[in-house]
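Protein data sheet
==================
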Amino acid sequence: MGFSTRQIHAGVTPDPLTGSILTPIYQTTTYVQPSVDEYLSKGYSYSRSGNPTVRALELKLADLEGGVDCICFGTGMAAIQGVMLAFLNAGDHAIISDVAYGGTYRLCTKVLSRFGIEFTFADGSDPDAVAAAVRDNTKLFLTETPANPTMKCSDIAAISKIAKKAGAIHVVDNTFLTPYFQLPLTLGADLSIHSTTKYMDGHNATVGGAVISATQEHSDAVAFIQNSTGSIMSPQVAWLTSQGCKTLSLRMDAQSAIAMTLAKHLETHPKVEQVCYPGLESFAQHELASRQASGYGAMFWFEVKGGLAAGKKLMDNIDVFSLAENLGSLESLITHPVTMTHADVEEAERKRVGIIDGLVRVSVGLEDVEDLIDALDKALEQV
């Protein structure tokens, strides 16, 4: 079946009690067992260890991503933490994309490093640089592509081969493109991570995370950590996210088309220094972005002439776009990573990986493109 059919029907069966076409929200702590000998005969015992509403979403996401199973978490960062705890021990080494979400950087450098886990932030756009970072104790590769916020792309297939040669697992953060545009597991990755808060939900209504695995062994390892730490997704969040998933392909197609229009418009604007969007031919890795994904997504960044001061003035005076963290929603959002999403990344590290002070990150929503262009033009007139 095609993607659009599966995003609606995968993981969902009519409720056996009422025939409800939607999976019910099973708001319950525990599950009554028929007898001691039939313990777990219905599959559930306690909601930290499993919930039917959450399970329906997990089955849907596993199907869409092409994995054997999926484990959902309370947040995207909880999902990343779950993977780290599942596969890394004290004394192990992990290679992380040098450009990654600020929360990922903070988790690695400020939390997990305290427990004897070592991290190297390597240039994911250069497979040779990634290979050069491998050590005897390297156990995990985490690749974010396209990367937040610079949109740097990494060759998933090439890095997967490096990881396998090193005897390590390769994890890809697929949040920006979703399985509709990019399928890391088919390119050799072992696990795919999502902040379901973003495009899977799509409506700024929930926070959540998911880990989809290529093997049951890896999924079981992640599930053990999720159950042990209690980093679960609530049934209400799972239900809302399941409904959001049903329009994923429509939203991604429409938002990406609008993003392309805006990026092309800004690329020719006299007050814009540069625009970075994988769909533009001027994007340094346009060929790679076109080769390993079927679409370019709805995220881009641009720099206003005049640097940081001009960029701040634009963001403080723009209409239609909302100045807010998050991405992937129906509403267009504008963000200043240096002071918002990536504030915990040291200044020297930000500059090293290209997160410049004047970078304005845009998450394109579903408003009329004419209104978005008009809002940008009016804001640029004021800088």
Summary: The chain has 14 helices and twelve strands. Residues 85 and 225 are 7 Å apart (CA to CA). The domain at 248-381 is CATH 3.90.1150.10 (Aspartate Aminotransferase, domain 1).
